[in-house]
Shikimate kinase (Faecalibacterium prausnitzii L2-6), 420 residues
Amino acid sequence: MEYGLIGSKLGHSYSKIIHEMLCGYRYDLCPLPTEEEARAFLIRRQFKAINVTIPYKRLVMEYCTYIDPRAKAIGAVNTVVNKNGLLYGYNTDHLGFAHLCDAHGVDFAGRTVLILGTGGTHNTTSAVARDKGAARVLTVSRTPDAAKGQLSYEEAVASGAQIVINTTPAGMYPNVGVCSLDVAKMPGLEAVLDVVYNPDKTELILRAEEAGVPVAVGGLEMLVAQAVYAAESFLSRKFDDAAGEIGRITAALRRDMLNVALIGMPSSGKSTVGRALAEKLGKKFIDLDEEIVKADGRSIPDIFAAEGEDGFRAKESAQTVRFAKEGRQLLSCGGGIIKRGGNLRALHQNGVLLFLDRPLDALTVGGGRPLSSSTEALKKMEAERRPLYLAAADAVIPNSGTVEDAVAAAMEALDEIFSH
Ligand SMILES: Nc1ncnc2c1ncn2[C@@H]1O[C@H](COP(=O)(O)OP(=O)(O)OP(=O)(O)O)[C@@H](O)[C@H]1O
Ligand SMILES: O=C(O)C1=C[C@@H](O)[C@@H](O)[C@H](O)C1
Ligand SMILES: [Mg+2]
């Protein structure tokens, strides 16, 4: 191996994609489940340079001849460069986190900062907060150690903090939807930062957005930034525009990883345009209506007949939650998905929403759609739902020409959405 990543479990790491997109060298994921394997790997040192992740960021320090002072102070090394058989250790996680804060204009000067969690990333983020002038850095734990001044999640709410940083795995895929901090009860918040990057928006970030916190961002940009700074150490050269590289790779990664959900009136073309768009984007096509039928075993008209609209909506929500937390999918939604706010929240956690806008006179009456029984019914439905589609969508895609025209318009909108 020349370049790569070691850690106990690497199944969900994006590092290979990031480094190969960035530099073109080959980057291998090398899972080392046991400490013995990690030690043997470090003794053999058959690599040019590596990144190190959980749980070996401290262990590798034993094998380094030189350790960067910041890495030493933080107590963790995530980047190791082999120079003529001697290992040099650095920490680029703190640079990555500092980049995330700077890119979103987070001002730490004189602020009270809450760090959720006591694990490895706690020290990294607290070092950055202190460097940037935080007045107080408080630690929050589910099992607070009062002797160390740690707070419970209940105490944290009343701490008067302006900035919250989550360093715990709470809310991380597949256990999405988890969050112990009631940010809605913290009116002075200026920024909420989460180092978790899968899903794109954790429950904490969604709640912070809903509470109107001005800056609410997940950890993807931090992950990319630490990789860019690691690559500089790997290759002993600086990028001319490191911030530009971080922006470029983050955008490409989000475009690749996130879901695209199509919403719109019944028969507006969500399935037809969706299939074609999925192929173009290289995403897996999922028709949520088909998934409801597959999971239930009955057709949609039969579900409506047996359980009414409420029964159908509950099934629709269950399938939405199930698929929305996955990634790299094109989700063709049922026309009524916007009737439940929870569906939209689930779709937004890891994707973007496009409203496919087909003229009313081109929509199909009937066709096995229980709520589209007549032209009048469709007209009334469109008047009710149009504002909801517009409010939920990241972009509006007209579907008034050919299917290919709609696909091209959607590609253009996605270029725009993922360009920043
Ligand atoms: N741009 C277009 N040009 C011609 N026909 C189109 C266009 N877009 C969609 N259609 C046609 O309209 C009909 C409805 O499309 P489709 O089934 O994809 O809609 P939908 O939004 O998935 O509907 P539903 O809400 O029932 O799932 C299909 O016959 C499809 O071929
Ligand atoms: O998941 C990953 O790929 C990584 C996570 C962090 O620990 C980084 O420090 C590491 O370099 C790579
Ligand atoms: Mg459809």
In short: DSSP finds 15 helices and 16 strands in the chain. The domain at 3-91+223-243 is CATH 3.40.50.10860 (Rossmann fold).
